[in-house]
Design goal:
The structure is a homodimer of 137-residue chains. Chain A is α+β, with helices and mostly antiparallel strands and 137 residues long. Chain A has helices spanning 12-23, 30-40, 46-58, 103-107, 124-136, and strands at 63-66, 72-75, 82-86, 92-95, 111-122. The structure holds a DNA duplex (30 and 30 nucleotides).
DNA sequence: CTCCTTATCAGTAATGATTACTATTATTAT
DNA sequence: ATAATAATAGTAATCATTACTGATAAGGAG
């Protein structure tokens, strides 16, 4: 006995959420994760999805992505990477290039354990659309 | 006449919001901005604050900061800079060091117009607390 | 294997930040 | 000044997320 800690138990609903995250490469919102989870376990509840998304992000098994849009997005692939968000269509693209952490930060005595870099702009598709528009004007 | 565009008008409530943002260096939440605006114009409404915060961030006159916490924060100082968030106390520190935008992004054809980098870790105060704790254990 | 503790769940109710709405006010061009 | 309409105060509505509750089940101890 002694020190019976609050530990994580394995459960099917949680596994379903993890599986959905692992199989998704489009940075789904919580609701989209819920919809996909329901295809596997139709009676999974919203609360379960939200609770597990929170637990998983807190334990760094998933990434929380706040892009400035209405909803939060989730990424089950935790290899270090950044994201590019198209301001026109909202598409999120993975950027597998490690951004340099400014030395200034550690010089200030701050201890950095994580970083989240989001780049904004226009994706290839939307970039082209703009060009066409300009021609019309 | 011709082309009567939707233009921004100057208004006192909007000026109040701008002034609060300019005078705040602690990255206030929308509600904090509202509280501070009320000290200047007691009958300013929440809707006005939210609407103007949205307009100001859309026009890049203010920065929207989503740190993973419960609320969004706002920063009226738009000189290019990043932020450091303490995972313990939540304090947000300005980092005036420009992070390098990975070349890979433009190589992918993506057009970058903005970037938001948030670093997470422990501030000087919380770092020290942890040290003391470790000694006890 | 059985018992026990309690983490987790499904389902539902509640929360509360943000947005929408509406009648009114105020800004700017003419 | 007048007209046109952007912006506001105040309030109601929205809806993503969280909290709650009784039931279930994971997993350690014996």
């Amino acid at each position: 006995m002694a020190d019976t800690r609050t530990a994580a138990r394995r459960s099917y609903p949680r596994d379903v959420v993890v599986r959905v995250l692992n199989e998704s490469y489009d940075h789904p919102t919580a609701y989209t994760v819920y919809e996909r989870a329901r295809k596997i376990k139709p009676d999974i509840s919203r609360g379960t999805v939200y609770r597990n998304l929170k637990l998983l992000t807190e334990s760094s098994e998933a990434l929380l992505l706040e892009t400035g849009g209405e909803f939060a997005h989730y990424d089950g692939h935790t290899e270090e990477h950044s994201h590019f968000v198209c301001k026109k269509c909202g598409e999120i693209t993975d950027i597998f290039a490690k951004p340099r952490v400014p030395e200034e930060i550690s010089e200030m005595g701050l201890v950095v354990t994580e970083e989240k870099c989001i780049y904004y702009g226009y994706c290839n598709k939307c970039k082209e659309k703009d060009k066409k528009k300009e021609k019309k004007l």
